[in-house]
Give the backbone structure.
Amino acid sequence: MIGESVSHYRIKARLGSGGMGVVYEAEDQKLGRHVALKFLPAEMAQDKGSLERFQREARAASALNHPGICTVHEIDQHEGKHFIAMELLEGETLADRVRRGPFDLGALLDTGIQIADALESAHAKGIVHRDLKPANVFVNARGQIKILDFGLAKIDRTRAAIAGDHSEAPTAVQPHELTTAGTMLGTVSYMSPEQARGQVTDARTDLFSLGTLLYQLATGTLPFPGETSAVVFDAILNREPLPIHQVNPSLPGELGRIVGRALEKDRNLRHQTATDLKTELMRLRRELDSGGRRSAEPDSRSGVHKAAEKSVAVLYFENLSGVKEDEYLRDGVTEDIISELSKIKGLKIFARSTVLAFRDKEVAPAQVGKQLGAAYLLTGSLRRAGQRLRINAELVDTQTDFPMWSERFDREMADVFEVQDEIARKIAEALRIKLSAQEQEALATRPTDNLQAYDQYLRGKAYARRLTRQDLEFALQCFQNAVALDPRFALAHAAIASSCAQYYQHFDRGPQWLERARAASHEASALGTQAPEILIAEAWILYTESQHEEAIQRVRKAIERKPDVEGAYYLLGRALFAAGRYQEVADMADAAVAAAGEDYNIYVPLHNAFGALGKKDGLRNMVLQRIQVIEGHLKKFPEDARGRTLLATDYAQVGRQEDAFREANLAMALRADDAMVMYNVACVFGQLGKPPEALDALRKAKEAGWKDATWARRDPDLAILHGLPEFDKLYPSAD
């Protein structure tokens, strides 16, 4: 075809060919630019499936505007020739590049981050590539990547209707997919297990393929090699790849952990979003840039990486009593053991938020060790019978599955603190860590000597997280019971202060609530402890008094002491948002989500900040992440009305109107007189474009106690009401 004219294009040179056609360089005679023209072979144009796949490639890529995705200019046909006009690229595919050997670490991380960033944008638009492989990723001389060939893409239009993009996704339209479950699509060596089984795919399918690609770029070999498709399928479904550091010892162990997590066969244990994977790669690059490269050399004694030699992941203990009410005790004991072990300087302990994903799941130590990069795993179980408590604990080497230490504790409930202390000491002893006098003193320090007070405190924490009026009132009663039993229980006093300040903020602006908060805060501080929870309580009081800068400073100080201190990032996000510092909220998103774990509250200020900044991609990602988190949470706690209102808000944003109404109605049935529930229901109606209903719900929210005018006036979910006289009357401007 060289020299021919097709439509307004003049064919200049043949660039190559693939399964779906031949590609030529051409000159656009209208605009004077050079483009790539991809032609569908004539025989394939007669096949409906091939033609639809060809058209789908153009539709999917043209819906995306991202520097890491090849731009499609148009799709057309001329004299029976179907073609796609797209961006002309100069460089080579990753398939060509990897033939020359593995990438160096810097180029590898940069490539992985770019691909994850492009997938993040595609997934936010509801587009799953499903054929990610080196041949479909182009790289130019400057190292800029471009993802090609969306011919197998799955386009879910219901996910494109976020943050004002409802025109792109009528709710009646179902995901556009030319195949159904039971049909296998993709390139065998880069398939996910769900693709290999012909199951329904989602965004996590692309993350497995990206993990395969990164493994190949890191080692020069495939993680699941084989001479035949059957052998490859068996490896993908049933076998674990060799650890990256064994194939390429020059690479850090942390890279192996990241890639290993992407290659999890259970997609629920993989990175859940491209944002998650990108964040981990960026964090590793930052550590390496700052000189903190982690050694990948194995220790000659045990095969454990030197950097991970004394790292311990504490999994949530199993609740053997079968009583749901005992779960708060199980959670509290586990989290306290994490805190105790964190006092030992010779140990690296993984934060609570890091291990939450494994709670109540059967996992193998080697699997968790690989995913987290932990050398050792502490597992256990707890059973309460009256005032008797049985705790089993075991420390396992994740490389060998060999138990380093195990013990059973049959004690009275009053001895629970001694058990926690003893577990920490036994682990230090098993790992040959000599405790300093200061560490021994720190381990001996107890939050309270009264077991009943401790029990009430843990119970209160479990309810306070839900932030509805009824749950907060119950939590406050528990905290009051705790300080009545032990007046020197500083953490319980701090919990009262935080809860009273939040009750004042959300439900009742009576001065007595702030007076109670201040009194409890002073009591906690006077007891001489430097616990970060006390700083959070002080910050809540400052926030309710609109002293946003002071609140921000307090929270940041608390995070310095304990990065995953409960509720810290949620309050920091609220304070920054109320101060109009939206970009700072957006900048902290990755750290906040990582620290919060299953706490869906963190997404509220993040969601609002991205909306206020007009950052649609960031907002889309926040919404999709929160839907996953809340859906999982409601399976365990279906009575959580606030979670249902937030889920209704998200469903409204993705165009799932019926689901949004269902969740909003369920929430109102659970908490009809709750100000926060009614406020969030107003947000749902606001997103659905129903001003009268939104105003009515907002009026009820104010009657029930929602008084935060600053928040309401800046909330993008209520933008449809801003400027209406009725809204201004409800929440007048401070000006």
The domain at 455-566 is CATH 1.25.40.10 (Serine Threonine Protein Phosphatase 5, Tetratricopeptide repeat). Confidence is low (pLDDT under 50) at residues 157-186, 292-308. The chain has four domains: 5-87, 92-289, 311-444, 455-566. Residues 616-636 form the longest helix (21 residues).
